[in-house]
Amino acid sequence: MKNQLLAFLLPHIVKSLIAAFDLQTVKLWIDKSIDTIEDAIDKSESKVDDSFLPMIYAVRSLLDIPDDDDSAASPKMA
Fold it and tell me: 46 lies in a domain?
């Protein structure tokens, strides 16, 4: 019963969330999330996690989310 309710409600919840946020805000959140992952990889002494960087760059390219770390014009998340 609980799974059925969740399966019924989830598409409506996702649709509402998508409608609540504009594309630029979603891209900003994704950019900041990816930045956090990149920072963790940079701080890591292991070189194994460096293998994830090409995938991260591919995701940025695919979703058209440039790495705006150096851009003074990029909005900041609170």
Answer: yes
